[in-house]
Write a sequence for this structure.
């Protein structure tokens, strides 16, 4: 019989488990501490539990904390880690930058969205990650103690694995878990409107929208999701939300050579976003094999950013990190594994 995983469970769920095993109630609180504060991977190391309790837990459960299987280090300091995910694998990117250290985590093995420019999409879809598999990417990170930010922008579409995403965010932000401020976490989506709206109501984490073009026909060629959830409808839904507090909204915009950085694009982006309190992150396209898209030059990136700023749209250029180890935006893939 396959053992169940404890990681990702709430205190109430752990309470049910210890009750079922006939263990004292306080054991649940001890497990919360060992899993989320001490990040303990082995029951044997949970020294304030009796030997019989440890043996009982070992018989029926696993902690769910697993060290990465492989590490790659970029010349710019970015690291890419490979984690187990059942019979599959998943990649994350650790990005240190002066006083900040950001971890880009994944929610699926592969992706169903099939965006033209993305290596993960070319992999196809294998499975949704469990809450434990998402949380493990953070808690088992060798550089865990240095982390300042989490971005859910790795493999997969987070809103297509909504319940497990929210379960992981609870672990990251609740007082019993890591107690992180939601403003330190950003979740990306290509615009699955129903779950995006739920997310805005049920979470306080930041939101990033993959735009890449303001024009329907052009975005449709890049992102098949445009057929179901056009960017105009995505933005309309965002405008209905009350953006109070510190939560941030941003738009991800990958720039391709001779395609989506013209005066017409600036005009349409300005028209779409209007006076929304948001930021546009410009990302230079990273070439994916056998895809007929090319990277723009630095001058195009700078011109496009400045032109948007002149229109009152806050736009920044995101530095490319980890490209030499395929850890940059759009390059994560475990297709060959």
């Amino acid at each position: 019989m396959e053992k169940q995983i404890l990681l990702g469970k709430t205190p109430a769920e752990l309470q049910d488990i210890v009750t079922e095993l006939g263990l004292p109630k306080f054991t649940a609180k001890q497990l919360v501490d060992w899993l989320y504060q001490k990040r303990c991977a082995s029951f044997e190391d949970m020294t304030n539990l009796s030997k019989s309790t440890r043996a009982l837990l070992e018989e029926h459960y696993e902690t769910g904390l697993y060290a990465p299987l492989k590490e790659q280090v970029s010349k710019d300091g970015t690291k890419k880690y490979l984690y187990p995910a059942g019979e599959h694998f998943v990649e994350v990117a650790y990005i240190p930058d002066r006083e900040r250290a950001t971890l880009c985590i994944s929610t699926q093995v592969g992706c169903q969205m099939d965006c033209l420019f993305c290596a993960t999409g070319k992999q196809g879809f294998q499975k949704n990650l469990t809450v434990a598999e998402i949380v493990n990417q953070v808690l088992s990170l060798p550089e865990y103690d240095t982390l300042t930010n989490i971005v859910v922008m790795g493999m997969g579409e987070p809103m297509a694995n909504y319940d497990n995403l929210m379960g992981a965010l609870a672990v990251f932000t609740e007082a019993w878990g890591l107690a992180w401020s939601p403003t330190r976490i950003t979740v990306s989506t290509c615009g699955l409107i129903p779950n995006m709206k739920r997310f805005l109501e049920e979470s306080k984490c930041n939101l990033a929208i993959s735009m890449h073009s303001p024009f329907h026909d052009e975005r449709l060629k890049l992102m098949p999701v445009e057929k179901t959830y056009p960017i105009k409808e995505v933005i309309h839904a965002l405008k209905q939300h009350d953006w109070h507090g510190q939560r941030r909204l941003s738009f991800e915009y990958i720039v391709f050579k001779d395609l989506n950085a013209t005066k017409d694009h600036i005009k349409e982006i300005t028209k779409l976003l209007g006076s929304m309190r948001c930021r546009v992150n410009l990302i230079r396209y990273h070439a994916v094999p056998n895809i007929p898209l090319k990277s723009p030059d630095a001058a195009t990136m700078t011109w496009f950013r400045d032109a948007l700023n002149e229109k009152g749209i806050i736009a920044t250029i995101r530095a490319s990190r980890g490209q030499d180890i395929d850890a940059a935006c759009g390059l994560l893939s475990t297709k060959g594994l």
Observations:
- The chain has a mean pLDDT of 94.
- The longest strand covers residues 88-97.
- Residues 4-62 form a domain with the DNA polymerase; domain 1 fold (CATH 1.10.150.530).
- DSSP finds eleven helices and 14 strands in the chain.
